[in-house]
Here is the input.
Amino acid sequence: MKSATKTAKKTSAKVTPATLPVLENEKKWTAAEVRGIREELEREVAQLREELENAESDIVDLMRDSGDGAGDDQADAGAKTYEREQEISLANNAREMLEQTEHALERLDTGTYGTCESCGNPIGKMRLQAAPRATLCLSCKTLQERR
Here is the structure.
């Protein structure tokens, strides 16, 4: 485990904005642009962690309040079940977004940010500025969505 951490640190020391890939018609990344992307992703991580914590707390409260359902009519039981499922769905969504955002930060640290995880081509600077968590270039994303 230590060697993997040391390797990641060594790799991240060599990563500069100029080494991140861009499309042929795009200018190289600047330090300010990379810093802005990193700050946005870090803010998002903090926000998503808070949302996830709140959603999980709400789920615990809903589970505690649901009791055995004695005395509830069908509509009440259904409403409680619906509300619980909604909270679980929100928590799952926040968890998935958090994983994607943390993955983007890892890719920034290792120098693989901006490289399509499917074909290895540049994702495109403009695409990443619009969707900083993107891991696929536009062509591969289009193919994925058609499936």
